[in-house]
Amino acid sequence: MKLYEEILLLKHYYKGKYVVENVIAFYKPLIQPIELQRHHFWTNFNIIDKKFQTEKTCSLNDRERLSKLFGFNLDGYSGIDKRKCLRNCVLPELGLYILQESFKENSKLF
Q1: Which sequence spans correspond to the domains of the chain?
Q2: pLDDT at res. 110
Q3: C-alpha distances in Å from residue 49, one per residue of 8, 38, 94
Q4: 3-state percent helix, strand, coil for the chain, nearest multiple of 5
Q5: Rounded to two decimals, what is the model's pTM?
Q6: Are 67 and 33 contacting, i.e. CB atoms less than 8 angstroms apart?
Q7: Among residues 21, 56, 58, 80, which is most buried (max CB within 10 A)?
Q8: Which ranges of the chain does DSSP label H, i.e. alpha helix?
């Protein structure tokens, strides 16, 4: 429920623009998100659905390829599932697209 608490807090009290991301869950979300690739997004600005040509991360099992794709090297960390962390990342092209969409409407909030 912490995810929904955060979304409701932002929706009702935050004056700037926001985006909350979560990997698509196995259950139906309580608050309707925008769905892009393997992620749910809750925002207070419009995001137009767009298809990306980038390789799907769910089919990648090689940690080295995922590290290169996302630009993260997790070799110095222990006690975490590195492949899972990398698979949950938002593709850089998608993150840039969402940032660009946020500037299309009333950018003076930033």
Answers
A1: 1-52+91-110, 55-89
A2: 46
A3: 23, 13, 11
A4: 40, 10, 45
A5: 0.80
A6: no
A7: 21
A8: 2-13, 63-70, 82-87, 92-104
